[in-house]
Amino acid sequence: MNPDIARLDLQRRQRLGMVEAIWGEHKSADQIAAILLSLQQQGELALATRVDPGKAEAVAQRLPQEAASLNYHPDARCLTLGAPAALNPEQGEVLVLSGGTSDLPVASEAQLALHWHGIRCDRLLDVGVAGLHRLLDQQDRLRQARVLIVCAGMEGALPTVVAGLVPQPVIAVPVSVGYGVSAGGMAALHGMLASCAPGLSVVNIDNGYGAAMAALRILLSSGAAEGP
Predict the structure, then answer these.
(1) Per-residue model confidence as pLDDT tens digits over 1-46
(2) Most buried among 30, 137, 211, 219, using CB within 10 Å?
(3) What mean pLDDT, rounded, does the chain reach?
(4) What is the pTM of this model?
(5) Distance of alpha carbon 193 from alpha carbon 203, whole angstroms
(6) Comparing C-alpha atoms, which of 124, 63, 69, 72 is closest to residue 93?
(7) CA distance 186 to 154
(8) How far apart (Å, rounded) are the C-alpha atoms in residues 162 and 152?
């Protein structure tokens, strides 16, 4: 790998239990293709986040020999090369919730990042507080997961409600969805940071990948999962 493009952290999996993901939004197709290929050649999991469909197609054109193993995940806006880490029966499950279907890209990014690391992960969509019965009907399902990731825009109330219902770690993800004073996710972020639910953890706006890695750290530190 040309150091002018990237200096890959190839020991991150051994050191932290997670691999280095490629931030694709501000990289060119040439840069993404080169880094994906280098990661795969080094035997590492290869994941690029924040890749739009046009850039994904441009990357595919640059990696014609990898066509069979290069996959674009439109819901998550991610590119992967190769296969994910194998699932382990001893791993715990993470459940990703969203207030509405507008939160789907962020929720899907979190789910894919965990799946890529061999963590069993499911989604529970459209359980926002505007129809609270939809969430209350799912309490048994919530309790089956070891960690919950909760994505919400607008005023961002959903994580507080979830954290008041179940004892597991809850990671809140503010989403840049909402009118006017929602301010691109700032209202949700501030609401989550000011939550009255003790122990609620909050990541940055739209940071599904960061929430996934926080959940992975929790599982690894509890002994619930082995590193991928």
Answers:
(1) 555 567 776 667 777 778 888 899 999 999 999 999 888 888 888 9
(2) 211
(3) 90
(4) 0.90
(5) 9
(6) 124
(7) 9
(8) 11
The span from the CA of 106 to the CA of 7, in Å, is 27
Residue 40 is predicted with a pLDDT of 85
Q: Which residue has the tokens 């619930």?
A: 224
Burial letters 93-121, b for 16+ CB under 10 A, else e = ebbbbbbbebbbbbbbbbbbbbbbbbbbb
Give the domain 93-221 fold. Answer: Rossmann fold (3.40.50)
Q: Give tens-digit pLDDT for 145-184.
A: 999 999 999 999 999 999 999 999 999 999 999 899 899 9
d(CA 12, CA 8): 9
Rounded to an integer, the average pLDDT of 84-106 is: 89
Do the beta carbons of residue 81 and residue 70 sit within 8 Å? yes
The alpha carbon of 45 is separated from its chain's Cα centroid by a whole number of angstroms, namely 15
Q: What stretch(es) of the chain map to CATH 3.40.50.1970?
A: 93-221
CB 175 within 8 A of CB 189: no
Q: Roughly what angle, to the nearest 10 degrees, separates helices 29-41 and 53-62?
A: 60
* Residues contacting residue 175 through CB under 8 Å, at least 6 positions apart: 98, 99, 102, 103, 106, 151, 152, 153, 156, 185, 188, 205, 206
Taking the C-alpha atoms of residue 56 and residue 107, their distance in angstroms, rounded to an integer, is 20
